[in-house]
Amino acid sequence: MMQTRVLVTGAGGFIGHHLVSYLKKQGYWVKGVDIKTPEFSETDADEFELLDLRKWENCLRATREVDEVYALAADMGGMGYISVYQAEILRNNTLIDLQTLEASRRNGVKKLFYTSSACVYPEHLQLEANVTPLREQDAYPAQPQDAYGWEKLYSEIMCQHYSQQYKLETRIVRFHNIFGPYGTWEGGREKAPAALCRKIAYAKLSGAKEIEIWGDGEQTRSFCYIDDCLKGIYKLMLSDYPQPLNLGQDRMVTINELADMIMSIAGVQLQKKHVPGPQGVRGRNSDNNLLKQVLNWEPEISLEEGLSRTYPWIEKQVYTKLRG
Ligand code: NAD
Questions:
Q1: Of 278, 274, 267, which is closest to residue 203 (Cα–Cα)?
Q2: By the 8 A CB rule, do 154 and 96 touch?
Q3: How far is the CA of 75 from the centre of ligand 1 (A)?
Q4: Which one from 81, 148, 202, 311 is the annotated catalytic residue?
Q5: How far is the C-alpha of 80 from the C-alpha of 94, rounded, in Å?
Q6: Domains in the chain, please, with CATH?
Q7: With a 6 A CB cut-off, is 225 part of the ligand 1 pocket?
Q8: Residue partners of 196: CB distance under 8 A and separation at least 6
Q9: 286: Cβ below 6 Å to ligand 1?
């Protein structure tokens, strides 16, 4: 039997890089595309091309001779990034998503997996730290906080219309804060778990007594470890479920609690200095009822376990950097 050929866009990024390795282990022929190569380790892809998917001819080239596409490429980052570069994010991601989908259709791709986000949910449902978990249907009437979320919502709709009108099946996932090793940990695009691991590692290695936390630290989120994310992606791709589906943990913690957990893994006690900074919505959690129903599964790696696999990797990066 011919090996199924898949394309992973964003294969130089955090989730895309891990996904390439995961799909290789499942026996696929994998092509990776990104504007950058993976930063922290070699790709396992059979073929890796540097292509800017904002350009139509690159989208056509990337999707040629593949059976399935995992569309992960996006201009994205943590709150410090997406709250500032809104126009750029909206423009870049619209170009990437629209053209990847259309090029996939033209090239006869059979199935496309689209990576949306919990950022699609309305801001007014996320005003309290003790928020009610968000169900998929809560996305409408729409009022995402940022341009990033609006673009994801638009692309979700586009995927659904493409699969209705054409012979291109689509699967849509809404990730809730995925974290793990081999992800961005400095430079401005990193998200809360990586940023906190970095701050704590710097303090530990330099002997500093405190770390800075954006806001009062009482904002809440749920966090999902990368290995669960990969399993969920694959299960959803193999399912016949065409609507958007949450993929995340449903255990909510405050950012202060997250920092405490990381400090305990690092073996340090530091003061938390609360400073002004972008915090995103006040509270967010995933309602996993539909996920459990559709996939007969839910993420199983605890936050403590995920952090204990992530922190040592970030501490090592910081150590290497400090040594110059
Ligand atoms: P990431 O930033 O590490 O990966 C995205 C990759 O897309 C990067 O390597 C980037 O270089 C690439 N890219 C950007 N512009 C491109 C272009 N013009 N052409 C080709 N490639 C381009 O982010 P990630 O965390 O791995 O996220 C993967 C996907 O999951 C994204 O679509 C993101 O929006 C979505 N998502 C992630 C999370 C999370 O918690 N990490 C949450 C919600 C949604």
A1: 267
A2: no
A3: 6
A4: 148
A5: 21
A6: 5-178+226-247 (3.40.50.720), 181-222+251-286+301-323 (3.90.25.10)
A7: no
A8: 211, 213, 255, 258, 259, 262
A9: no
Q: Is 225 a catalytic residue?
A: no
Could you tell me how many residues make up the chain? 324
* DSSP designation for 214: E
Mutate which of 8, 14, 150 for ligand 1? The one with the most ligand atoms within 8 Å of its CB, which is: 14
Yes or no: say if 34 and 9 are a contact pair by the CB < 8 Å rule: yes
Give the ligand 1 atom nearest the CA of 177.
Answer: 40
Q: What single letter denotes the amino acid at residue 61?
A: R
Single-letter amino acid code for the residue at 91: R
pTM: 0.97
Q: In what order do the strands lie in the sheet with 111-117?
A: 47-50, 29-34, 5-9, 68-71, 111-117, 169-175, 244-247
Question: Is 100 touching ligand 1 by the criterion CB < 6 Å?
Answer: no
Q: Whose CA is nearest to atom 20 of ligand 1?
A: 34
Ligand 1: residue of 76, 100, 190, 222 to mutate (most ligand atoms within 8 A of CB) is: 76
Q: Which amino acid type is present at position 120?
A: V
Alpha helix (H) residue ranges in 147-211: 147-165, 192-206
Please spell the DSSP secondary structure of 3-20, one letter per residue.
PPEEEEETTTSHHHHHHH
Q: Which residues of the chain have pLDDT under 50?
A: none
Query: For residue 183, which atom of ligand 1 is closest to its CA?
Result: 3
> Taking each helix axis from N to C terminus, what angle separates 14-25 and 226-238, rounded to the nearest 10 degrees?
60
